[in-house]
Amino acid sequence: MRLKKYIALAMVLLTFGLLLAGCGKSQTESTGSTGGGKASNTPIKIGLSPWAGYYPWYLAEEKGFFKKYGVNVELVWFPVYSDALQAFVTEKLDADSVVLSDILAPASKGIPVKVVLVIDNSAGAEGIVVKPQYNSIADLKGKKVGTEFGTVDHFMLVKELDKVGLKESDVQLTNMSINDAGTAFIAGNLDAASIWEPFLSKAVKEGKGKVIMSSADSPGLIADLLVFNDKTIKERPDDVKKILMAWFDALEWWKQNPDEAFGILAKKANTSVEDYKTLNKGVKIFSLDDNLKAFTKADNMQYIGYTGTEIAKFLKSKGMLESIPDVEKSLDGSFVEAIAKEKK
C-alpha cells in the first residue's frame, strides 16, 4: 500500500528548504552519455515501498544486473511509502520510487529532483467502486463518496465527476484514508469510494461492489517514477545510466523467466504468487520504448510533463500547492534516450 500524505510532506519540505537557503544551486544540465561523473564505490541508495511496480528492483539485485554493470546499489525498503519520500527529500536516499504527483511539492519549492525513469502506469490498480445499484458516475449525485484528499485517487474522482458535469459539491464527499474508505464501503457506510489496491479488490469482493471506472480507463493519469537528487545526477551520471540499464535487463529477464521471476517478486511482497499476479495485472510496467514516449513532449497524458502540470493545477486549486511548478525542469530523459541509441 502506498500512502500519499501531503501535510506530512509539507513539513519535510519546510525543513529541507531551510537547508537549501544557504546553498547556491548549480543549473548544469545532466547528460545520459558515458564518460563523465565522479567515480565512487559508495552505494547509491534507492528507496522503495509496497507497490507492485517497485518490486522488480529486486530482480535487478538478485539476478546480478547491478553487478553486471559494475554499479554499487543499495535497495532501501520502507514499509510506509511516505517514509521513503521523507528520506529522499532529506537526502538520506540518492533516489526514490515515487508517484508523479509527489514530485510536485518539492519542485514547487525549488528542490532539485530529476525524473529519469517511468517505472509504471497504474492500469486498473486504482478505481471507483460503487454499490450494485449504481451504473455510472452520474448516479453518484447526492450520494456518499469517500476518498483521501490530495491523493491521485481524489484527482481521478474529480476528473470523472467533471466529465459528467458534476462538481465535488454535488456529492457527499468524505475525506478519509484510502484503507478507511475501503473499510467504510464494505461496512455499507459509503455509496462509492475512489481507492487503490488491495482495498479496491476487497471492496468488490467483501462489499459486493463493482468498479465503474479504473485507472485502466485513463492511461498515463497515475505514473510511478524513479527520481534522483540533483547532486547524484551531476556527480555520478554513469552510475545513474547503469542503474537504468540494469532495470531494463531485469525486465527482459522477467519476460524470459516468468515462473522464477514471479516467485522472487511474490516472496519480496510477502504474498502468494497467485495474489502477486493479480496485483501485477493492475500496473503496466514501462519498457524502454514506453519511456521514450513518456519523455516526448505532447499535449496529452502520454507525456509525463503534461500529466504533472494537470495534477499540479488540481493540487493548487485544493490549496495543497502554493504554486504550479515548471514540471519539465524536473524531467531528464537523456538517460533512456542514450540507452535506446546504444541498442539500435
UniProtKB/TrEMBL annotation:
It comes from Desulfotomaculum nigrificans (strain DSM 14880 / VKM B-2319 / CO-1-SRB). This is Aliphatic sulfonates family ABC transporter, periplasmic ligand-binding protein. Belongs to the bacterial solute-binding protein SsuA/TauA family. GO terms for cellular component: membrane; periplasmic space. Residues 1-21 form the signal peptide. Its main location: periplasm. Keywords: Signal, Transport. It is found in: Periplasm. The keyword Signal applies. Gene3D superfamilies: Periplasmic binding protein-like II (3.40.190.10). PANTHER family: ALIPHATIC SULFONATES-BINDING PROTEIN-RELATED (PTHR30024), TAURINE-BINDING PERIPLASMIC PROTEIN (PTHR30024:SF47). Residues 43-251 form the Solute-binding protein family 3/N-terminal domain. The lineage of its organism: Bacteria, Bacillati, Bacillota, Clostridia, Eubacteriales. GO terms for molecular function: ATPase-coupled transmembrane transporter activity. It comes from the Bacteria. It holds the Pfam family NMT1. InterPro entries: ABC_SsuA_sub-bd, Solute-binding_3/MltF_N, SsuA/THI5.
